[in-house]
Specification:
Layout (H helix, E strand, L loop, with lengths): L1 H6 L6 E5 L4 E3 L4 H10 L3 E3 L4 H8 L5 E5 L5 H14 L2 E7 L2 E6 L4 H11 L9 E3 L5 H5 L4 E3 L5 H6 L2 E2 L8 H10 L3
Parallel strand pairs: 2-3, 7-8, 8-9
Antiparallel strand pairs: 1-2, 1-4, 4-6, 5-6
């Protein structure tokens, strides 16, 4: 499966898994300590391979986060692609050092489609704005897709409009004022 493919990557990579019960990593390390600090997410070191933990607990993994060197993104993507495809998952970078793996059924695009249907909002009246590869499915789900100026190039290629402001320059406020507050 996917965890076996992650654990078989050529260079030593640190991975976290997310389940309904919490976040776990195989062993305590500097990546986990840094991740806790920047996200305030508690990650429990379990002291054994993640695939063994998942098999023993029989828990569903909702997300896998692999810490990578940004220069290795294509190599990691290529190495994991067969396992991801076979298991109905997708992988993408969300931050320079984060390679995220989620189910094809769990992305932001699915979330947007679900909410639009749930609240009877036509897709033509939805909009999405993003900055990273983890936003691609969301931008593809709506005809009104926007990328902030400092977005990942792959996201900019998908967006219908690239905003002239960055996320630090209040791009979402700009979007609302200039595109959503029609007269």
């Amino acid at each position: 499966g996917i965890l076996q493919a992650v654990e078989a990557l050529s260079a030593p990579h640190v991975a976290h898994i997310y389940t309904e019960e919490g976040a776990y990593t195989a062993y305590e390390n500097e990546y986990t300590a840094h991740y806790r600090k920047i996200t305030r997410t508690e990650v429990q070191a379990i002291g054994r391979p993640l695939k063994d933990f998942v098999a023993e607990k029989q828990c569903a993994v909702q997300k896998i986060l692999v810490f990578i060197d940004p220069k290795e993104t294509e190599e990691v993507d290529g190495a994991l692609k067969p396992a991801l495809t076979q298991n109905g998952a997708e992988g993408f970078t969300s931050e320079p050092f984060f390679y995220e793996i989620i189910s094809n059924q769990a992305g932001k695009g699915r979330g947007l489609l679900y909410l639009a249907e749930r609240f009877s909002v036509p897709l033509s009246q939805t909009a999405a704005v993003g900055d990273g590869q983890n936003d691609v499915s969301m931008l593809l789900a709506t005809p009104n897709s926007f990328a902030v100026q400092n977005a990942n190039p792959k996201l900019k290629a998908v967006a219908k409009t690239v905003l002239p402001k960055t996320n630090i320059e209040n791009a979402v406020s700009y979007l609302i004022e200039n595109y959503c507050m029609g007269e």
